[in-house]
Amino acid sequence: MRLAALIFAIALAASNAYALDFKPYARGAFAALTKAHAGRPLIVHFWSVTCPPCLAELPQWAKIVAEKKGIDVVFVNTDSEEDRARAQARLEKAGLAGATHYGFSDDFVEKLYFEADKSWRGEMPFTALIAPDGGLVTVTGAVDDPLIAQWLEKRGAK
């Protein structure tokens, strides 16, 4: 069974036939996202299929995306392109197929971490909360972290 799944994932990756549109997330992407969403609250959530807390909280993120139309939410998968099929399956199962998705596409991942937060070393899950005025708060931990809850409450979410 694992072999069949691996063969399917490789074939899917080789054909680049993802149902979800994983936009490339490379150097400069964090600044570009912040600029593109300027004036609106933005959440950039970094996650991985190898992170059990990340997977457990995906349904909570789906609920936030569905309920908070005034907050832009972007998901960034930090796995290699070989794991993109697994990421897609998890997102679809959680009800996040319609969200905006990026995938790491730069081998210099330390630089990608640094651009989001100079003290981030790749711990997951990781969330950047960007206020309409550009103010940035970062959280390493699950969506039920008090800082995330407080930030959402300030913007009308419960």
Automatic annotation (TrEMBL):
Which top-level group of life is the source organism from?
A: Bacteria
- Database matches in Gene3D superfamilies: Glutaredoxin
What keywords are assigned to this protein?
Answer: Cytochrome c-type biogenesis, Disulfide bond, Redox-active center, Signal
Q: Where is the signal peptide?
A: 1-19
Q: Which InterPro entries match?
A: Redoxin, Thioredoxin-like_sf, Thioredoxin_CS, Thioredoxin_domain, Thioredoxin_ResA/DsbE_sf
Q: Can you give the residue ranges of the Thioredoxin domain?
A: 5-157
Question: What subcellular compartments does it reside in?
Answer: Cell envelope
Q: Which residues cross the membrane?
A: none
Protein name per its UniProtKB record: TlpA disulfide reductase family protein
